[in-house]
Amino acid sequence: MRPLAEAQRHVIGAVGRLPAIEVPLAESAGLVLAAEVHAPHDIPAFANSAMDGYAVLAADLIELPALLEVLEDVAAGSVPSRAVGRGQAIKIMTGAPMPAGADTVVQVEHTDGGSDRVAISVATEAGTAVRPAGSDLTAGSLVLDTGTRLGPAHLATLASIGEAQPRVYRRPRVAVFSTGDELRPYETPQLAPGQIRDTNRLLIQESLRELGAEVLDLGIIGDDPDQLRAVLADAAERADAVTTSGGVSMGEYDLVKEVLSELGGVEFWQVAIQPAKPFAFGSIAGTPFFGLPGNPVSVFVAYEQFLRPALLHMMGSPRLFRPRIEGILDEPVDTNPEKTVFLRVGIAWHNGDAHARLSGGQGSHVLSALASADALAVVPAGVASINAGEPVVLEMFRWPEERRLDELEA
Q1: What is the pTM of this model?
Q2: How many C-alpha atoms does 170 have within 13 Å on its Cβ side?
Q3: CATH of segment(s) 324-407
Q4: Torsion of CA 233, 234, 237, 238, to 10 degrees
Q5: What CATH homologous superfamily does 4-18+171-314 map to?
Q6: CATH homologous superfamily of 48-131
Q7: What is the pLDDT of residues 307-350, one digit of tens each?
Q8: Cα maximum dimension of the chain
């Protein structure tokens, strides 16, 4: 059996980056920048008011109440036509340009709201409620670095500088199908004896969509070698990666293993992890292939440890793996010392510490425990048991990726 980190390094090292392209900003969420982005001008481009109020000189507010002449009313989107001098004020709205001469803004709540003359009841220091030009970004400064995976705040920042077509690595297209005569679509209301609903394909597809990949759904393929061979060849031609669930174990009817061995270029591993020990990786006509196990929790673990980081690498991200933190296990557990074991746990926070408890049954078929879990407790190979109150490593699968390839354990 291959150790986990060795298998992960092999997979990442075998997949290449997708091409860099320019896409409309509104279509770039989840994608990774392929080039640095620099500010073409200051943001904000001009000094402006941070609140509704009156632009004045702070020196006029020494003696209170101060009674000042109101020169004009400036709304957001308009420009002051006059400069503010001593004893004067301009009524101003949030976001409107600061008039020349004024050095502070008094919020309207501290005034009588006058139109011709305004009475101000509080002193305000120079610079209060003023957003200087370039206080967010200065012209030429680095806005976002290469390798940044774009989220909503990144998109809004790019929009603020007028970057309408960011250069990003292309969105991967992943072909997905499940194998087995026993499978039926999950919508099936009544199952015959021996049949089960196909949950794996939905789990993989929604995980891929959450990642930002394009999904090519090839459905359920029965235990027919000729059909399986044709589907795999078609998938390899149409997609950037192919993933299946089931058929890669040691059973007599595990046809994926049989057919792929004919196509060549595919390695079958027994990875030293639990769950998800059976895992296949290789290529079909140059397209990466990921053969995930048949049990649904094993599918999730294999996706998190292999397929997701490999796709992130293809998408150009330097951060491939979920963050890990140290927590405290609140109950004793026995594990298999020959493998890295992933326990499904719920987390409660007490005084800043993450306390973990098993979220349910730990069988690789128990989806309900996965749905209730907040993290995977990672018990390294060589450890047979953990006592209650002892530290445990928690892999936070609901948090964004953070760790890089060179940060994997030996």
Answers
A1: 0.89
A2: 11
A3: 2.40.340.10
A4: -150
A5: MoaB/Mog-like domain (3.40.980.10)
A6: Molybdopterin biosynthesis moea protein, domain 3. (2.170.190.11)
A7: 999 999 999 999 999 999 999 999 999 999 999 999 999 999 99
A8: 92
